Amino acid sequence: EDRGGGGEGGGGEEDEEEEGGEEEDRRRRRRRRRAVSIAATFFHDAIYDGRSGTNEEDSAALYRKFASEIRKAATAEEEEEEEENDDGPAATSSSSTAATSDPPPPPPPRG
């Protein structure tokens, strides 16, 4: 009798954890795609002046400034969490790490 979890079907718990991790990754990617879509919609022509020929560029610059501010805030929050956490940076959540990754590019200008 094998009580060590090996053999046929013995890795079930590990398989479930892997599947759970894969599902969480899929949910995270869906949330990120949705956030990118919302940001692209919001920042597309966020600046509009009927007399200006640089609306797209101005909107993209506004987005870059916004993304930079968000990154700074997320980094500051992550550093605060690291100071409070005795385990150091490895113990921070993956969501805080994701927040400090490069922001998605601004929407392309319309031709």
Automatic annotation (TrEMBL):
Residue ranges with Acidic residues bias: 11-23, 76-87
Region (Disordered): 1-35, 72-111
Compositional bias segments (type: Gly residues): 1-10
Domain of life according to the entry: Eukaryota
Compositional bias annotation for Low complexity: 89-101
Compositional bias segments (type: Pro residues): 102-111
Protein name: Uncharacterized protein
Protein species of origin: Trieres chinensis (Marine centric diatom)
